[in-house]
Design a protein that fits this description.
Helices cover about 35% and strands about 15% of the residues. It is an alpha+beta fold.
Length: about 300
């Protein structure tokens, strides 16, 4: 009975703000995602996705550490290739995050349905990812969970980076002083590094898997390399459940390109991936260097 009363009161409160909740389209560990729409006072309808987080069902670490960080970052960012948050409402122990709706689903679904991308299409989409991650890093934010499942396709067939559940603000761009010399440089202070394992093992850099203190922005670049590999090969570069063996494969660069593609990958495309999947973080390519590679500069 009390649950029904809560649902009615939630629905009434949401309707008063112009929000209507629809069918479920996704599910997370502590949340669900539903279709939603917002109707403003002039009658304009905006189609949205709504992530509903039940705080009373969350772990203490998620509720007190990761979720507040996610909300702070989500509501502070605006970029054409980042998922836009329309509004955040909290009703008792439920938080409703109304976000931009991406009708094209996620990148992994797209690749599974359509197969590997041709290089020209991959280059266009990957360029959009680079813009998004360069913007994040310029704001002092590392994503820490870049993977095809967290990259969405909007109605204009463009990519949107979403899911900032593990994102971390490494330094504050608004502070009067920072220990960081430049967002894309080599002089970030070790005090801004991470020790937490974040994200999916298939996309995680070796230094993350080995539980070493790591620069999360440099680890993001490894994950970008895995994303590009999946785009072009329809498979992840490393498939190994045993973490020790996985790290050995990563350190030895034991990944194989798909030779069954209708058109073999160009040397430039392979070089771009190789530069990102550099197992030693000190030698991994930076985002500014990546942007200058021949593969991305040629049409």
């Amino acid at each position: 009975m009390s649950t029904t009363v809560h649902h009615v009161s939630f629905r009434r409160a949401l309707l008063q703000s112009g929000f209507h909740i629809g069918a479920k389209i996704g599910k997370g560990t502590f949340s669900s995602v539903r279709l939603a729409k917002h109707i403003n006072r002039r009658g304009k309808i905006t189609l949205l996705a709504c992530k509903i987080v039940r705080l009373d069902r969350c772990s203490v670490e998620f509720r007190e550490k990761f979720f507040p960080r996610e909300l702070e970052i989500l509501t502070s960012l605006r970029h054409p290739h980042l998922l836009y948050v329309h509004r955040v409402l909290q009703l008792e122990q439920c938080v409703f995050i109304f976000m931009q709706y991406a009708p094209g689903g996620d990148l992994l679904q797209y690749i599974n349905e359509h197969g590997p991308l041709k290089e020209l299409a991959a280059k266009r989409w990957f360029g959009q990812l680079l813009l998004a991650i360069r913007f994040l890093h310029s704001k002092g934010i590392a994503h820490r969970d870049l993977k095809c499942d967290n990259i969405l396709i909007n109605g204009r067939h463009e990519l949107l980076v979403g899911d900032f559940g593990f994102a971390k603000r490494c330094w504050n761009t608004h502070a009067g002083h920072t220990s960081v010399a430049m967002p894309d440089g080599e002089q970030r202070s070790h005090q801004n590094w991470s020790e937490t394992f974040c994200g999916s093992v298939a996309y995680a850099a070796p230094e993350v898997i080995m539980a070493q203190p790591y620069d999360p922005m440099v680890a993001d670049i490894w994950s970008l390399g895995v994303v590009l590999f999946v785009m072009l090969n329809c498979a992840t570069p490393f498939s190994e459940d045993n973490l020790s063996r996985l790290v050995r494969l990563q350190m030895d660069r034991m990944y194989v390109y798909n030779d069954l593609l209708a058109q073999p990958l160009t040397t430039e495309a392979r070089m771009a991936i190789d530069e990102m999947l550099e197992p030693y973080p000190q030698q991994r390519i930076s985002l500014s260097q990546l942007k200058k590679l021949n593969w991305l500069r040629t049409k």
